Amino acid sequence: HNILVLNGPNLNLLGTRQPEVYGATTLKMIEDLCTSHGKTLDQNVSHLQSNHEGTLIDAIHAARGKQDGIVLNAGAFTHTSVALMDAISSAEVPVVEVHLSNIHAREEFRHKSHIAPVAIGQICGFGAQSYVLALNALAAYLAERGA
Ligand code: DQA
Which residues are named in the active-site annotation (predicted)? Predict the structure, then answer.
């Protein structure tokens, strides 16, 4: 399968950004981890990061018919973007929502996710391992569906 790992705003700063919350792992390390873990699962992983809501929406539209699944960390857009939610609803590509931090253990405004209702499921709180768990979940989901 083809799986897109899509990262949203400020995640390009990982490694230097609030390391007490997000850890010391850089985005490049996470991307490399996803690529190599994808190989062990026989999945072809590609990557995109953008700080722009419209670019993320375009990437979700472009995934239609091209990607079998998306691992999405929408960053703060998770909590604000009805537009991203609508894009996922329209794309017909299964999405697993991921977060490095446990958004439910943080500020109230992070508890609400616009992605969760249109995702297969949500994985949060495991740092870079959240992405590994998401790839496992997506690969199992796709295998089960015979997709
Ligand atoms: C995040 C959690 C969001 O609340 C925050 O805005 C981020 C990162 C996470 O991976 O823990 O940018 O998505």
Answer: 22, 99
